[in-house]
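Each record in this resource describes a single protein on a pair of labelled lines. With that in mind, the following record should read easily:

===
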Amino acid sequence: MTTTERTMVPTIAGEREMLEAWLDFHRETLAVKCAGLGDEQLRERSVPPSELSLLGLVRHMADVERNWFRRVLAAEDAPPLYYGKEDPDGEFHPTGEDTWEAAHGAWLAEIARARELAASRTLDDRTAGTNTSGEPFNLRWIYVHMIEEYARHNGHADLLRERIDGVTGF
């Protein structure tokens, strides 16, 4: 998913196809925003006091995918990859030892698992797990939330990329 091309979303499609296409479009958008940059550039933060970096956003989205699809949708025992009690925002604190290769690989693995878990469910199927509120969700809600989450963070990624090397658009 480190390409500069994205799948175009169909303008006429059924609900599930449309939701999945928009989610994939936004996943690919984040990959595009990171394409061609080295680890140091991907670790660059926006402006103080923000801790946002492109590498941090990819790590964050790996954990978001993991949470909503593995823990909430399927009730899998899948502890967070990058954060914990000692550092609740750990995904946004990559060190010099954290690499794009590792973060990208984890993110792609979580996306693959999310697709696998969603494939056998309908949009109306309720989750086997819950989030911290204890409420169940349906797959439709998760898809809409994931589109929103990616869209918001892709806005951050636009600004980060422009600050790093002046690249805008796409």
